[in-house]
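## Example pair
The file below holds two records. Each record gives the amino-acid sequence first, followed by its C-alpha cell line.
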Amino acid sequence: MSATLDATTQGARYQQLLDADSRTVPDVLRWQSPMEGGPLTVPVGRYTSPEFHRLEVEKVWKRVWQMACREEDIPQVGDHIPYEIAGIQVLVVRSAPDRIQAFRNICLHRGRQLKEFQGRAEELRCPFHGIAWNLDGSLKHVPCKWDFPQIPDEWPLPSVRVGTWGGFVFINLDDDCVPLEEFLGDLPGHFTDWPLEDRYKAVHVGKIMACNWKLAQEAFMESFHVVATHPQLLPGMGDTITQYDAFGHFARGITPNGSVSTHLRWSPTEQEMLDALVDRSLDVPSPMVVPEGGTARRTLADNRRAGLAPVIGAEMADALSDAEVNDSIVYVVFPNFHPWGAYNRIVYRFRPYGNRHDMSIMECMILNPFSGERPPAAPLRMLGVEDDWTDAPELGMLTRVFNQDVFNLPRIQEGLASGSLDEIVLARYQETKIRCMHAELERWLARPAGRQP
C-alpha cells in the first residue's frame, strides 16, 4: 500500500467496486464522510486507570443513551429485564401494551435488587420484606405501613429515561438528557432501507472479557488487524478496501466480501475466494460452487438473495444489491452500540463488567428477518472469562473469528498495564472508527455538568 494513499483514495476503491454491482446500490452506500482532524494518539490511562474509569462512569455512563434490550425481549405486559452498567442496576418493564418504562432496580427500603433475572410479573415486589410497586413504578403495598411514618403515600421507584429505535430499547440515567431522537441524529436515515424493527433476535451470546471495554470493542472496529489475526479470510475479504466514514457521534466501516485482500502475494481462484468467505474446512466439500465464468462475489450474493426470498419476498430479495447481502457494513454509535447494516445481521454491545476498569462484557446478537408472526427473542447465553466461544455454536463461523480476537485482548491489557507506554498510536484512516469514538469521548469528558455535548 502506497504511503500516498489518502481517505479519498481509499473510499474511491470501495466505490469502484459498487460501480460493478449487479444491482442498483442504495444511496446510503454511496455516502462518503472521511474524518477530519481528531486524535492520532490516545493516553494509555484510558484503558488502565481506575480513576479514568470512575470519570467515565460520571461523565458518560450516567449521562449517555445506551441500548438496554430489544423490544421483543419484553413483549407482554409485566415482562421485565434487568440492565446493569458500571454497578448501576436498571429494570426495563413493559408496563402497558404500548408502554415501556425503566426504573432503578432497587428497593427503596434497604436497597435490595428487585429483580435479578428476566421474567414476567404482575408487580415489582422486593423479595426481602415484600414491599411492592406497580408495573408503572407507583407504590402498591408496604407491609406494616404503620411502622413507617416517614414513608409518603406516593413513594415511586426512581424512573429512568426510555427511548426506542429500530426495535431497540435505550435508557438514560440523566433526567436532563436530550431526547433519544436528537441523540441519534442522522443515524435512522442510514437504516431506511434496512429497518431493524422488522427483525427478531435469533441469537444472543455474551462473554466476560479480561480487558477494558474500549479495548474489547476496538478490536471489532477496524479491518486493519485481519492480515495478522484472521489470515484465513484474506482470499475473500477486501480488508484494505474498507471505506471508513465518521458522522460525529457515530461512524462506520464498509468491508467488501468477495474481493481479494491486497496483502496477498498470490492470486486465489474465485472458488478459493468463496471457500474463504464461508470458512470451508479442507476435509469437506464446498457448500457453494462458483459457476464457470462466475465470481465469488456474485455467487455468494445470488445464494443469499435466494435464501431471503421466502422470508422477505422474491421481488424485494432480487432487488438487493451484491453489497447489501455480502458486505460488512458496521456502524458504531457512541459509546458502545454496534448495529450492522443491510443483511449482515450482527449487532454488538460492549460495556464494563460490573464496575471493573480492566474487565468487560462483549455481546453479539443476530437479528434475522422473518415472515408471519414474530418469533420469540432468543435469551442471552452468557459465557465466562475462561469459556470458549465455541460453547455457543449458534454463532456459527463467528466463534472461530471471535476466538482469534479474544486471544489478543488480555495480552493487550497486560501490555498497556505494564507501564511501558504512555500512549497508543492510531492509523489515520484505517482506525477512523476508533479515532471517532475517542474524539466523542473527549467531548463528553470536557462538557459541563448537566449538559449534553
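Second record, same layout:
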Amino acid sequence: MCGVIGIWANGQVFRDLYQGLLAIQHRGQDSAGIITYDDRFHTKKGNGLVRDIFNADHAERLTGKVGIGHTRYPTVGGGRGEDAQPFQLNSPFGIIMAHNGNVVNYAALKKHLAEKHHRLLNSENDVECILNVFAVALEMQNPGELTPEIVFHAVESVFRQIIGGYSVVAFIAGQGMVAFRDPYGIKPLVWGQRRDGVIPSYAVASESVCLNIMNFGDIRDVAPGSAIFIDRDREIHMKRISVKPHSPCLFEWVYFARPDSIIDGVNVYRARVHLGELLAEEIRKTGLPIDIVVPIPDSARDAAIEIARRLDLKYREALVKNRYIGRTFIMPAENDRQSMVRFKLNPIASEFKDRNVLLVDDSIVRGNTSRAIIGLVRECGARNVYFASCSPPLRHPCVYGIDMQTRTEFVARDRDFEDIARRIGADRVIYQTQENLIKAVRMENPNLGRFCAACFDGNYVTGDVTPEMLQSIEDERRNMRTGQMELQIT
C-alpha cells in the first residue's frame, strides 16, 4: 500500500507536495519521492521517511507548478533507492508516474515489453511496468499533440493488459496530467480543486485528508475504470473507460486509511465506530468477565471506545505509543517488526495488574506483534488477556498491494480460533465477522454493492488471478525478504 499525490498549481508546488506526503506518510515508510516540472523534470527520491529525505535545499531545486509525489512500502520491489517512485521516461514527450497498488502479472508483462517493444525495465517496481505499457500505447498512436481521446486510449491499453489493483497519477511534459483508477476501483483515488487563481489549481491523491490539508475543495472520488485528463490549458476531461463491478478494498477502512479521510463516500472514522458497535455484540455473546478495554493504538482506538461504551466497560489507554516509531505492519522485514514492538508500545502496568483485559486491534495478520503485546500485558500481572480483532481472520494472500503475500504468514491459516489464541498467547480470541465488516462500511454508504475481501475469503475480484501467479508472487516475496536479511547481516 502506498500514497500518491499529483498537483498542478498556480505557484511553486514543492511545499504542497511535501505537506501532502506528510499527510499520507502512514501509507508507506519505506521510501518517498518528488518530481516537479518547469520545462524539465527535477527529481529527489530516497529511502526512509518524508521528513528525512527532503530539506530546504530541495525546496529551492525542485521548481515548477506541476509535480508528483509518492510514499511507498514495497510490494513488488525490494525497497532499493532505484525502486522509489515516481518514475520517469523521456519518450514520448517525457512522462512521470506514480501509483498505489500491485501488478499481478508483472513478470509476464516485463518479458512482453522486452521481447516485443525492446523496453528494458531497470527496476523491480511494478509502476515501471504500468508506465511503459502506457508509453507504448501513446507511441503507437504517433501523436503530434495529445488529445483526450489519445490519452484515454492509452489508459484503455493499461486496463486491458494490467492485472491487479492500482491508482495512478502521471504528468506528460507539455501536454497534461493524467489520473486513473483500476476497473474495479480496488485502490482509492480522489481529486479536487483550489480556487486560488483565474484557473483553479488541481490535485489528485490517495486520500481526501491529503487534499483537505492543502485547502483543496470539491473533493470527489475518481470512479472505477475512469481516467481524468487535465490538458495544457487545465481543462478537465473525464471518461469511464471500463465498466466492472466496483470492489473497493475493505482493509482501507479497517487499517490503512486515516480516520479523517473519506473513501468512496465512507467516512473512515464512522466506519470504525460501526466496527466497534458490531464487534461489541460478538463479544457480548461470549460472556467473558472483562474488567477493562484497551486499544492497541492507533487504528483500533475508535472501535475500542465504542466497544467499551456498548458493553458498559472501563476504557483505558494503557498502552502508550512512541509516536516517532513507524507502523510495524508495514515494516519490510520480520525481525524489524518483532523487535520494534517494545520500542513502540510501553504498558502502564498498574492498569493491567490483576485485571481481565480485552485488547482490541484492527486485525491479526502474522500474529507476531499480537503475541509480543500480549506478552507485555501478562508481564504487568494481568489475570486474563482476551484479544478482539476488528476484522475477520486473514487467511489468503493479497495480490492487489498489501504486504501479506505468502500463505504461510497468516496465523489464522488452517487454524481454528482456539489454536490462534494459543499461538498468540491469548486466553480467548474474538473476531469480527465478514458480514459485519461489510455492514459497518455500508452503514455509511449503502450504494457500495461489492468489496474486495480476498485476504479474508480468497475471492480475487478481478477473476484472472491464477494459482501460478499466486506462487510467483509468493516466491518473489520470499526471495525479497531473504535479500533484505542478507543485506542486514552484511
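Notes on the second record: Residues 485-490 have pLDDT under 50 and may be disordered. The domain at 3-244 is CATH 3.60.20.10 (Glutamine Phosphoribosylpyrophosphate, subunit 1, domain 1).
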